[in-house]
Structure formats: C-alpha cells, structure tokens
C-alpha cells in the first residue's frame, strides 16, 4: 500500500486539481495518524483553515499534501458566567460570534473574515483593531490542546484564566503560522460586547497633515482605536460633508453613553476639528465592516505589501519617509502600524527603506508573492534559535514549509 492509499484510509481525501491531495481529518486522532504517516513517508504538508488571506501570506511552498483543518470544528464548552469558551481549532469565528452574542459577549479579535478558523487566526499572529483597549489576540488564549509535527498531542493552560504552570506554550504557537505544531483545541477569554459604539470620522486633504494629528488623537486615552484611511475605502460616507476628503481620520469608542460624550469632546479639543459621528445603526455597521476589510480591499495581489511598525511619536516622519508624499497608506495610529501597497522594485529599494526606517526605531516587513516573498522580515537576530526550535520539533521539516518566518530560509 503506498502512502496516499494509507492516508485515504485515515480520513477523507480528495484530489485538489493541482496535483495535490487534500486531506480533511475529522478529529485529533485522524490528524495524528496523518502527521505520523507524512513523517514516515517524508511527505511535506501545508495546513489550511479558511485561507482568508492566503495570497497575502507570502510564498508558501507547494506541498504534495494539503491539510484542511476546517472539519475539526465545534464548541466543546461555553461558560457565559466565567466568560470562557473552548472550541475545536477549525471552528469559524462567525459561528463563535453568533454563539457568544446571545449572552452579550464577544471574542474581540476583529477580523473581517467570519469564515476564518480560530486556529488559523491565532496561528497567523495578526491583531484586532481594538487591541490597544482589549489586548493582543494571543492574550485571549487561556489554554490549548496542540499537536506536534510528529503527531503527538499536548496541552498547555486550561479553561480558567489563571492556570499556566511552567512556560506558557500557547505563546510559542500563536503567530508561528503552524510551523511548530497545530492547534487542535483552544480555550479563550471572552469580553462583554460594547454597550454602545461610536465611530468618529473627520477629513484631511493629505495624509501628511493627518499624520501630524495622529499622535494627538492616540493620546486621548480610552479610545478603542484611531488612525487614518484613504477616504475611498469608506464608501458609506456617501454624500456627507466628508465626501471631498482624500483621507479620513477615524476613531472608535466602545463604551456607554457618558464615556462616548466625554471622549468625543476630548478628541474635539485635541484636534480642533469638526467630527462626524456614526452611532449605532446600519451606517455604523457598514462603516465598521469597511474599516475592518480595508487592508484586503486596498492591498491588491500585485506587487506585495509593506507593513511598518513604528513608535507612535515618530509617526509623521515614518509616514513621510515610507509613503513619499502619497496618501497611499492605512494607519493604525494607536498601535503604530501602517500598511501600504509596495510601489518599489525589489530588492535594493526595500532594503534601503528598511535601513532608513530603522533610524526612527521602525521595523519594515515586506510581503510579496513571488520569490521576493522570501524577504519577509529582513535580518532576524534570533534566526539560529528559531531554526534549532524547528529542527527539534520538526526534524524533517514536513509541517508548513515556507509558512511564516520560515519563508526567510
Ligand atoms: C493584510 C492582512 C490583514 C489582516 N487583518 C487582520 C485583522 O485585522 N484581524 C485579524 O484577526 N486578523 C487579520 N489578518 C489575519 C487573518 O485574520 C488571518 O490570516 C485569518 O483570519 C486566519 O484564518 P484562516 O482560517 O483563514 O487561516 P489560514 O489563512 O487558512 O491560515 C493561516 C496560517 O495558520 C496556519 N494554520 C491554519 N490552521 C491552523 C491550526 N489549527 N493550527 C496552527 N496553524 C494553523 C496555516 O497553515 C497558515 O500558515 C490579516 C491578514 C492580512 C494578510
């Protein structure tokens, strides 16, 4: 019996059309058997959840096996009073949202893609819009069950908020893009859903002027989030007084009516600008969805994308240096992050920009789709240690070659 026959006996398999075999394990036992078979036969495989941002995730290697994690799905335990939830890793975020909303709660990860699996979301290491007020995505994980590349299973943390003994291994897998192991179950901390939300928008003719205001806006503490966005990405503003703006400043306030009034007035004092308020209702929901989806709408498949993390106080200089006077960027000012389309040739201009930005304490990541996708992070000083870890946990490098940091090899 060859390896593919063995795999077909373990779980549902299908030819993916591109010569790859798509494996859909239905539970952790099947997943474990798949991984040990792949190891035995030296067959590399790529895990996938919903694949929401697949094209932006750099040059993944084309492996003979595709591991579809979406069938390991379902709610295992929900404790509304404790605000904790345990689910299988292939459970879609949309399903979780619906369940916990019944109790006025949320898993505050702010993705625009409800079909995202919770495992893929935490493995990708991205952070939600409101991470300043609600914490980084990885901080929501209180426990996990995970599988190492050899198919062995282990747990870390548990179902209560204070429960980690020894190293918090959930942090090892969160953001590792499935290169060190796969989540099979996740326990997460929920938060009360906001009692009320307001989005404030205000106009600018140019991103440079906006950038100078952003530090002031981000210093209005307790705003859930603030930044700037090309106005064309929020079509909901329609024929409002904002419709002639090139760039919009935006701020999110998630709280009760008193705090909303207080923070609106503090932001007005800080900026000295007329602010347009969108309160609960269809217009707010539409603008919120547009804001969440903005990176996906804005960054196209051609040419790659540049992500810059910077100290918020250096925001104006960093944006001037990186965007060269264009309005072509989405700015999350409170976190000090900007996304822009890459308008440069690879590789020298990217390296030069990275060096220039280092003078401001900023860090550039480049995500391309071709061979240039390899230049993801630039130089990584911990690289030898990352390799040692990978070699220890996945000596044959069968799991997710080319994903995450390992595209830098
Ligand atoms: C430009 C951009 C903007 C983004 N903005 C946001 C945002 O605002 N908020 C946010 O939360 N996210 C954001 N993301 C990340 C995005 O949410 C996630 O990539 C996606 O939601 C992950 O879910 P998925 O099921 O589609 O995972 P996939 O895309 O299928 O997988 C993502 C990675 O995780 C690995 N993986 C899949 N399942 C598992 C598992 N069970 N265990 C371990 N590894 C696994 C995959 O191999 C892959 O490397 C952004 C991504 C991009 C590129």
What would the keywords be for this entry?
alpha+beta; eight-stranded antiparallel β-sheet; 19 strands; 29% helix; single chain; binds flavin-adenine dinucleotide; 12 helices; five-stranded antiparallel β-sheet; Uridine Diphospho-n-acetylenolpyruvylglucosamine Reductase, domain 3; Alpha-Beta Plaits; 409 residues
CATH topology of the largest domain: Uridine Diphospho-n-acetylenolpyruvylglucosamine Reductase, domain 3
Tell me which CATH architecture of the largest domain applies here.
2-Layer Sandwich
Q: Strand arrangement, largest sheet?
A: 15-12-14-13-17-18-16-19
Bound molecules: flavin-adenine dinucleotide
Low-confidence stretches: none
Q: Return Rg in Å.
A: 22 Å
- Describe the largest sheet: 8 strands, antiparallel
Mean pLDDT: 90
The CATH C-level class name of the largest domain: Alpha Beta
Characterise the protein shown here.
- With 409 residues, the chain is α+β, with helices and mostly antiparallel strands.
- It has 3 domains: 1-193 and 379-409, 2-Layer Sandwich (Uridine Diphospho-n-acetylenolpyruvylglucosamine Reductase, domain 3), CATH 3.30.465.10; 197-298, 2-Layer Sandwich (Alpha-Beta Plaits); 305-372, Alpha-Beta Plaits.
- It is 29% helix and 23% strand.
- The protein is built from 12 helices and 19 strands.
- It has helices spanning 3-10, 28-40, 93-101, 118-124, 131-134, 170-173, 207-218, 257-271, 282-298, 315-323, 348-358, 383-393; strands spanning 12-15, 21-24, 45-48, 65-68, 75-79, 84-88, 105-106, 141-147, 153-157, 182-189, 191-192, 197-204, 225-230, 247-254, 276-278, 305-309, 329-332, 337-341, 363-367.
- An 8-stranded antiparallel beta sheet has the order 15-12-14-13-17-18-16-19, with helices on both faces.
- The radius of gyration is 22 Å and the shape is globular.
- Bound molecules: flavin-adenine dinucleotide.
- The site of flavin-adenine dinucleotide has 35 residues, from strand 3, helix 4 and strand 10.
